[in-house]
Amino acid sequence: MSVTYDVTRSSQAARIAAGLGAVILLLLIAAPWWAGRAELRLIGEICLFLSLASLWNLMAGYAGLVSVGQQAYVGFGGYMLFALTIFGGLHPLAAIALAGVLGALVSVPVAALIFRLRGAYFAIGTWVMAEVFRLSFAQVSALGGGSGTSLPTDIVRSLAEGRAAREALAYWLALAASVLVVASVYLFLRSRRGLALTAIRDNELAAASLGIDIWRTKFVVYVVTSALTAMVGALIFLQKLRISPDAAFSVNDWTAFVIFIVVIGGIGTIEGPIIGTLLFFALRETLADLGTTYLLVLGSVAIVVMLKAPKGVWGLIRSRFDLELFPLGFRVRRTDQKGA
Amino acid sequence: MTGLDAFYGDFQALYGLDLHLDAGEVLAIIGANGAGKTTLLRSIAGLIRNRPEAIRFRGSPVGALRADQVAGLGIALVPEGRQLFPSLSVEENLIIGGRVGRKGPWSLDAVYRLFPILKERRNQASTSLSGGQQQMVAIGRALMANPDLILFDEISLGLAPIIIRDIYAALPGIVGDGMSAILVEQDISKALSVSSRVYCLQEGRVSLEGASDALLREAISRAYFGIA
Questions:
Q1: CA separation (Å) from B209 to B31, B113, B116, B190?
Q2: Which chain B residues are closer than 8 Å to A330 by Cβ?
Q3: If DSSP states are collapsed to H, E and C, what string results for chain A?
Q4: B96 at A interface, C-beta within 8 A
Q5: CB 3.0 to 4.6 Å from A99: which of A55, A57, A77, B223, for a disulfide?
Q6: pLDDT mean across residues, chain A
Q7: What residue numbers bound the domain in which B202 lies?
Q8: How would you classify the pairing of strands B75-78 and A2-8?
Q9: CB under 8 Å to A296, separation ≥6 — which residues?
Q10: Percentage of chain A with pLDDT > 90?
């Protein structure tokens, strides 16, 4: 009897997960027909937070860029949606796409500045940049200055006829964004550039001496993340229909919660942000009535997870069951053959 | 390759070091702890930046280039302590090495022919390997870049003597066809056995230089320890 090994990237669990994921996705696409208004809004919000968390995870968990200033791009994207539709006369969908392009453009000089900083200084630098964004937009009186502005009704109407159709469209856009973000993060990490990114995270010096341009790899990740974050920001404020500097550049909503999601889910994994988002919303929906106690509970959960399971809930599951739902690596399967 | 001339100006670890390496030559650098051997290799690899003219490779100044640019020119480093990527498999570690995309005889298959054990282990996490196997991965990873010059930093460090012998037995197969090498080593007899010339460093200066088979043990220990 000879033993042969068979190398595969896929696994039983991954195939089941993919099948299950497809079913869930179909159910979610059909949600406007089976869910109520409040549920639709909630699922849409979950999708947008999942997108933000996956993007932050790519940046912090894989590229090692621990930013606490991603609210800069959420707010920027939101304001671009309002500015481009109100003053530029663009269709909201075109404005969302353009918000992404502009987010990428504005992130280039920001990266040139903050990439000079390392570690904690980098984190603080990103926060300072986000504050600069907030204060700058608060100065624009055409967009309501410090008190903000609402999306005019004719622009909202241009999206679709009737409130139900508009809400369904906003929901589908949020769902599409989360699928697009998770899929692109997955495909990016499977690519050669993704391999380089993992190498940089593991050992920067060794990666550099193998010919990997660290600065450029991180730069590409930062710009792409910023562009997608700006698009998600535009979608968030398309749902809210109202924007103000404090809401748009809220470090609590768009960064603290996002970091919470990634940390409790499991940083540096694709599954982590998904599980983290579900846990975060489960906590929020059950505890929201408690007021500030809710934030205390969130804080305690974060501390307990960081102490007891530093790799997050997904890290815990993976170490127990050797699961990988989004297979990035390869695995060896033993196949026994009779004879010879 | 017309030759590599390395001139170091004054900086912390190395003081006006002059050394050169011809194409296809294997150079050994020996010296006590803190003599500046690793600093020298890291400077060549671009991990420590210098004046552009401080290091010339094939006649062009490379002293101020970044590590990834140096790697692109065909200088590969097998770093001290191996420095594998723990979350990648053996094969992925090797693939990363081939990323610079230089043409040459080294490929995954060639590395697996050199170190057959790696083929068996290719899908294992690099951290699950023994020290000697990890060292093979580190060497294979550097070879995947098809370098013209390969830098070995303390490849025997922390390995069992029998493993060291195996790895040194593989070296002629690596540098045999025209590849130059600089070997930094604490194990003097091993270093002398595979190299054609040797430099001995002491406190950042060259204390002895000569053909590996012509130097007397006595002279080496004088240069090594600085005993007059």
A1: 12, 35, 37, 17
A2: 89, 91-92, 123
A3: CEEEEEEECCCHHHHHHHHHHHHHHHHHHCHHHHCCHHHHHHHHHHHHHHHHHHHHHHHHHHCCCCCCCCHHHHHHHHHHHHHHHHCCCCCHHHHHHHHHHHHHHHHHHHHHHHCCCCHHHHHHHHHHHHHHHHHHHHCCHHHCHHHCEECCHHHHHHHCCCHHHHHHHHHHHHHHHHHHHHHHHHHHHHCHHHHHHHHHHHCHHHHHHCCCCHHHHHHHHHHHHHHHHHHHHHHHHHHHCEECHHHHCCHHHHHHHHHHHHHHHCCCCCHHHHHHHHHHHHHHHHHHHHCHHHHHHHHHHHHHHHHHCCCHHHHHHHHHHCCCCCCCCCEEEEEEECCC
A4: yes
A5: A77
A6: 87
A7: 4-225
A8: unpaired
A9: none
A10: 48
Contact A7 B67 (CB under 8 A): no
Are the Cβ atoms of B88 and A195 closer than 8 angstroms? Answer: yes
Q: What is the CATH number of the domain that holds B28?
A: 3.40.50.300
Nearest chain A residue to B98, by CA: A210
Across the interface, do A210 and B96 touch by the CB < 8 Å criterion?
A: yes
- For residue A7, give the chain B residue with the closest CA: B123
Domain count, chain B: 1
pLDDT tens readout for residues A260-304: 999 999 988 888 999 999 999 999 888 878 888 888 888 898 899
pLDDT at B228: 47
Residue B143 contacts A, CB cutoff 8 Å: no
Q: What digits encode the pLDDT tens for the residues A162-202?
A: 888 888 999 999 999 999 999 999 988 888 788 888 888 88
Mean predicted confidence (pLDDT) in A119-144: 92
